């Protein structure tokens, strides 16, 4: 190739411009094929160059975004957080079209537009009536509103899925879905799952947490480092249950906590395809459940009913 560049000035110019363009996007010169004339280079994979480009774009976005936007960007980049985008191979990985559309918009930093604009009020309904609180542009309220039980239903779906997943040949004992206290020392505590593993009683408590926060200090911390919202929830549960509980925390935009990753990794089946395939399928199911239910809640909070979800206006910045 170097010989061709030597005899063809136009080709050499095109290569030089391409190399400059890649360097401008953050790809190291050493990773660009034919960038160093005469130097011995191993063939560079396109994937490596793309990873450098994406890393540079992510850094640029983090530098110019607000603290809440930074936290959201970090959350969508966690292990398995984008798995709902994959082709489903199991029923619990399916996301219906209208919810998928809204979930993709959320992942891209967008929002569902309020149906009855300009009245920016929460439309979630409980037995006491419509919520009616103001919907903030950052999505803080709609990710935490307990009106109508939508947040609880998302949590309960994850609990039921995790119990069924563990019970499917991954643990020897029955997996009990119980809201029970782990000990007399925690009479007010209520954990979600319990089972025996190698003669030891395991307690798991599930939480789905939003990275958006109205607290400036919390927003700043979550903007600076990946997974802080999940980490805070894990520490809170360990303190509350005196270390007896294993937290299973997933951020609402997809990033799982350290303990959740550990549980999936520990109990994933090892078969002819390898345990990584089983773990990947688990993350896809979890991602589909969390993103579908989060999208459903946002659509309802913005005044859209299932019959008109297909017409819901979405805004992606």
What features would you describe in this structure?
The protein is of the alpha+beta class. It has two domains: 2-64, no CATH class; 111-315. 44% of the residues lie in helices and 12% in strands. The protein is built from ten helices and eight strands. The chain has helices at 2-7, 9-24, 46-64, 67-75, 97-107, 150-167, 216-224, 228-240, 258-267, 275-301; strands at 111-112, 125-126, 129-130, 176-180, 191-197, 200-209, 245-251, 314-315. The strands form three sheets. The chain has a four-stranded mixed sheet with strand order 4-5-6-7. A two-stranded antiparallel sheet has the order 1-8. It has a two-stranded antiparallel ribbon with strand order 2-3. A hairpin with a 2-residue loop joins strand 2 (125-126) and strand 3. The chain is globular, with a radius of gyration of 24 Å. The protein starts with a helix and ends with a strand. The mean pLDDT is 87.
């Amino acid at each position: 190739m170097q010989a061709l560049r030597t005899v063809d000035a136009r080709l050499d110019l095109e290569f030089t411009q391409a190399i400059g363009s890649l360097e401008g996007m953050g790809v190291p010169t050493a990773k660009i094929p034919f960038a160093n004339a005469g130097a011995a280079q191993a063939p560079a994979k396109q994937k490596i160059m793309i990873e450098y480009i994406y890393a540079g774009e992510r850094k640029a976005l983090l530098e110019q975004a607000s603290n809440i936007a930074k936290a959201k960007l970090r959350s969508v980049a966690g292990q398995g957080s984008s798995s709902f985008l994959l082709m489903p191979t199991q029923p619990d990985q399916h996301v219906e079209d209208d919810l998928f559309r809204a979930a993709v918009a959320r992942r891209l930093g967008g929002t569902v537009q309020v149906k009855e604009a300009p009245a920016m009020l929460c439309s979630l309904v409980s037995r006491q009536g419509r919520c009616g609180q103001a919907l903030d542009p950052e999505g803080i309220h709609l990710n935490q509103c307990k009106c109508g039980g939508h947040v609880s239903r998302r949590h309960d779906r994850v609990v039921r899925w995790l119990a069924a997943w563990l019970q499917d040949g991954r643990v020897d004992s029955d997996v009990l879905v119980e809201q029970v206290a782990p000990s007399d020392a925690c009479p007010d505590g209520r954990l979600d799952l319990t089972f025996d593993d190698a003669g030891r009683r395991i307690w798991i408590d599930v939480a789905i947490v939003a990275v958006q926060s109205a607290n400036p200090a919390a927003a700043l911390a979550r903007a600076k480092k990946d997974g802080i919202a999940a980490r805070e929830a894990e520490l809170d549960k360990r303190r509350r249950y005196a270390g007896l509980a294993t937290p299973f925390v997933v951020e609402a935009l997809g990033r799982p906590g350290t303990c959740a990753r550990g549980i999936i990794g520990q109990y994933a089946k090892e078969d002819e395809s390898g345990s990584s395939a089983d773990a990947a399928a688990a993350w896809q199911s979890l991602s589909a459940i969390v993103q579908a239910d989060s999208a459903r809640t946002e659509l309802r909070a913005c005044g859209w009913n299932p019959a008109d979800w297909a017409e819901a206006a979405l805004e992606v910045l």
